[in-house]
Design brief:
The protein has 297 residues and is α/β, with parallel strands linked by helices. The chain folds into two domains: 119 residues, Medium-chain alcohol dehydrogenases, catalytic domain (Quinone Oxidoreductase, Chain A, domain 1, Alpha-Beta Complex), CATH 3.90.180; 139 residues, Rossmann fold, CATH 3.40.50.720. It is built from ten helices and 13 strands. The longest helix has 12 residues. GO terms for molecular function: oxidoreductase activity, acting on NAD(P)H.
Length: 297
């Protein structure tokens, strides 16, 4: 098969590569569509495991299943994600991908295309974990809704994770405040943001507090650099709250002692996330936002 292989010298090459063997609990998938993530180039530039297959997000058809696998079945349309740039026999940027069957999900017929399903990977599960996992923000999961007015702040609403986070929080009944560049204001509003502000505005923190009644207790920073971490902590109401980052906390960005800071896990509870994916992917509000998600900001 052809696969995109990490090379020495911070580069990649499309090469012939052995089709991965299928274990008793695995499936082999013929890929149809793949999606890109920032982690892909970061694994090339910073991790540099030469000989590994790059890529995380994929969608395709099952062509072989291990003897212990009861679902999915050969012929099923499935999607999922793997840790690309890590293994010589596992990565999404290839004609075939081998993965544990329980870390894939069967795409409900008539819901989303291969291209759309491939995007329900890293960005989506990162947003799911950040918002809903009990060790992160622990918000109310859809289809249930929060029973009172409650604000959630998302820094970087037009990023891939940010777009999913806005939709998910909206589906859960939360009011969403976010930041973006002015050119993306209408995009994030169309996805469910109630208020949006220019992250470069020197008065952005005071404006967010005014719009939300200075009531924010839960925040997600999808950029997770020094400035974004500090701003996200500042918008949280007096008395403190919780801030979830995608990257490791920056010590120099700590501006408050009453804000608990967590990062999304590199190896989350994948079965939990795949289950949530199955439940949410066919929701009409999320499904209706696909044109925005696929075209990007």
């Amino acid at each position: 098969m052809k696969a995109l292989i990490v090379q020495e010298g911070k580069t990649v090459a499309l090469k012939d590569h052995p089709v991965p063997p299928v274990g008793d609990d695995d499936i082999l998938v013929k890929t149809v569509a793949l999606a890109q993530n920032p982690t892909d180039w970061k694994f090339v530039d910073f991790v540099q495991k030469a000989g590994t297959i790059l890529g995380c997000d994929w969608s395709g058809y099952v062509v072989q299943a291990g003897k212990n696998v009861t679902t999915p079945k050969v012929g099923d349309h499935v999607a999922g994600f793997v840790q690309g740039g890590t293994y010589t026999d596992g990565g999404a940027y290839a004609e075939y991908i081998r993965t544990s069957a329980e870390l894939s999900w069967v795409v409900p017929e008539g819901t989303v295309s291969h291209e759309q399903a491939a995007t329900l990977g890293c960005a989506f599960w990162t947003a799911v974990q950040a918002l809903y996992h009990p060790t992160r923000l622990g918000l109310v999961e859809p289809p249930a809704k929060v029973d009172k007015e409650q604000w959630v702040f998302v820094y970087g609403g037009s990023s891939s994770v940010g777009q999913y986070a806005i939709q998910l929080a909206h589906l859960s009944g939360y009011k969403v405040a976010t930041t973006a560049s002015p050119r993306n204001f209408e995009l994030v509003k169309s996805l469910g943001a109630d208020v949006v502000f220019d992250y470069k505005d020197p008065d952005v923190v005071s404006k967010i507090k005014a719009a939300t009644g200075d009531s924010i207790k839960d925040a997600l920073d999808t950029i997770s650099l020094v400035d974004s971490q500090a701003l996200s902590a500042r918008v949280i109401a007096p008395g403190g709250g919780t801030l979830v980052l995608l990257l490791a906390p920056k010590p120099e960005a700590k501006v408050r002692d009453d804000v608990k800071v967590f990062r999304t896990s590199r190896l989350p509870l994948l079965v939990f996330l795949v289950t949530v994916t199955n439940c949410i992917c066919s929701h009409p509000h999320l499904h209706g936002a696909w044109p925005h998600l696929l075209s990007g900001p």
